[in-house]
Amino acid sequence: MNAQGRTIEIPGLIDLQVNGYRGVDFCDPALTTGAFARACRWMLEAGTTAFVPTLITSSRRTYEHNLPIIAEVLDSPEFRGRVPGIHLEGPFINPQAGARGAHKAEWVSPPDVGYLKRLLKWARGKAVILTLAADVDGAEDLARCAADHGAAVFLGHHLAGEEHLRRLALAGATAVTHLGNGVPAQLHRHNNPVVAALGEDRLAATLITDGQHLPPAMIKTILRTKGPANCAVISDIAHLAGLSPGPYEVGGQPVVLADSGRIYDPATGYLAGSSSTMLQCMNHLASLDLLTDEQLAAVAFDNPLRLIGRKPQEIAAGPKIRYDTAARFFYVDKDE
Predict the structure, then answer these.
(1) Mean pLDDT score of the chain
(2) Model's pTM, two decimal places?
């Protein structure tokens, strides 16, 4: 699909879901300002132009400790325009196994507007995304509250049907978080949250194109159904990325980082984040030859920014990202 023999510069790579990097877990209850800042530098050095640090479902004590630390670092001159806000992926998700993925069941909270307001206060106005389940009672109230406070509302980690998604779209939700993931391994062939999300035209989609989370046919289906203009690539990168393969823990639960880069719960087989950077995710997507050069740039830069209500001029310049159209390969131009 791409023109041959050209190297072009793209505006950048914007990642809306970064859980940590190189051993620094953003949900670590002992997170420090220094550790978070180091992880931000490493992430930006790895070719990501700007990113949104993400906290999955955590304990209240962890939220109260970590959110102000992250907000403080985001306010520093070094990261302005490079780390535009915080993604709260939870705690208002469906507690059922499969739907909640790697999120710890005991920390899942039923919809509680008062609790959400505390989270937003601890985040010091820096929350730009709230991911919540569409199929829990009170989800619409949470969506309206988050939107009123300037956060984009995404839907995920649920077993939502068409009617749930319709109601949440009317309440202000704009996208589905990592469509095709965060659901049980076995689903009804027709009535399931993936099909329902594909059919709800008012919701855009984020998708993890690391080569582990979605097979090529599913990536193609999402892109064809939603349209490239309504899709944004995310990495969902975990703090284990950049570490040696072996057994680890995520949120107090055992996981394995395989030689292949797959991070999974050995008890259930469910994935627990990605080990790929945004640059690597975009290279896997480009290798599938599903999008034009312009569409690749859109799903990596323009669309993520639009989903969080940011303009390109609000993003500070990072290293030059170039795309070799013949090799279908993105890279950081270190000579610039």
Answers:
(1) 95
(2) 0.96
